[in-house]
Each structure stands twice: as C-alpha cells, then as structure tokens.
C-alpha cells in the first residue's frame, strides 16, 4: 500500500526483480496506473488507506496466502501549534494508528505464518522542534504498536522501518524549492556522504521480509542523520 511512487514503488520493483509477484494499492489512480506499467502487478486497487473499512476489504479480497504486506501510506505533519487545526491533528494521529491496526487485523488471516506485515515510519520526530508535535508523537507510538502487533499476530512477523530523509517525490513536494539545498546539506553532513534514496529503504524492506527471525522491531535507516546536527 502506497505503491504508486517512492519507497513503495521501488520496493515493488525490487520484489519483481527478485522473482516475486506484487499487488499495488495507492490513493492516486493515475499514478497507480503509471506504476502498474512499470512493475506489471497481478492487480491494483485505488483507495485511501486511511479509510480503514476499505483497507480491510482490500486485504481480505487478496488471494491466499499473502507472503508480505508493506504499508507505506501516510505523510508527516509539520504544523506549528499556533496554526494547528485540532481536528486535522486528531485525524492525522488517530488515522495513522487506525490504519496500522486495520492492516494488522486483516493480515492475521491473510498473511502466511512467517510472512511479514511491514510498516514505514520515520525518525524525524525524535528531536523536539517547532511544528513536530504530531509527528513526534507518532514517531514514539509506532514502535510500541509494532511490538504489540507482533505478539498478537504471531507467527506473522510485524516490523517497522524508521526512515530519515529519503529523496522521494513526497520529500520534493514538502520541500519545494528548498529540496536541492537540503540534499546538498545532507551530502556534506551525513556520515555516509550521500542522500538516502528509495532503493536503500527497499533493500532493507526485502531483507526484513526474507529474514524469518525478525519481528517486533524498529529498523532505522537514515544514513546517520540522527548523529549530526540539522
């Protein structure tokens, strides 16, 4: 889910390159169609993953058994408190948690034993900053939810990838004309000396899918971003 661009699409490409089949779901039907031309999935479905009823119907409708479910849907909120709409904030926070819970409930009967339910989160909220209240709360909540789902859904494995800045279309839309400056800053400051891309995160996702000993954990991938100043 969230497979029409960025991390989701690149993961689908790598799964296909490894000989796997994919089903793509995303909110934007036009982007989803272009992604389908790229990776040739078994099927596609266009819907908003925050619609939990629709999400569960989608997962229940997949053919048995599903090896892995990857959920990349959602975007961070960077609104300062003075400009924060509390209804929107509640929807952003509660909707993201409800989406994960719905994916977990539907995956319990759909994903094969030893398969993976894998979520994509972030590391950005670990440093308090203006505008990071909602994102910071989610950053703290998602690892706990992941660990609890791993117990409830066992032997299905549940894991979380916490990504720092990743050079995706979403990042471009959030940063606008500041994108190149951010890239250059990261090239100069990150210990790896380059910007993390979707292929890096996708490679980690495939490893987590393939390694049957991994469950209930959060895996950071940020090129060392947490260890340097912003």
The shape, in one word, is globular
Rg result? 17 Å
Class based on secondary structure composition and strand pairing: alpha/beta
Biggest β-sheet: strands ordered side by side in the sheet: 3-4-5-6
Q: How far is the N terminus from the C terminus? A: 30 Å
Mean pLDDT: 93
What's the tally of helices? 8
Number of E-type strands = 6
Main sheet?
4 strands, parallel
Proportion of residues in helical segments: 40-55%
User: H/E order of the elements?
Assistant: HEHEHEHEHEHHHE
Strand content: 15-25%
> Oligomeric state of the chains?
single chain
Unreliable segments of 5+ consecutive residues? none
List strands and helices in order, with pairings:
Layout: H1 6-17, E1 23-26, H2 29-39, E2 43-46, H3 52-60, E3 66-71, H4 86-107, E4 111-122, H5 133-153, E5 157-163, H6 169-175, H7 179-189, H8 198-210, E6 218-221
How would you describe this protein?
The chain is globular. 46% of the residues lie in helices and 16% in strands. By secondary structure, the chain is α/β, with parallel strands linked by helices. Helix 4 links the parallel strand 3 (66-71) and strand 4 (111-122). The protein has a 4-stranded parallel beta sheet with strand order 3-4-5-6, sandwiched between helices.
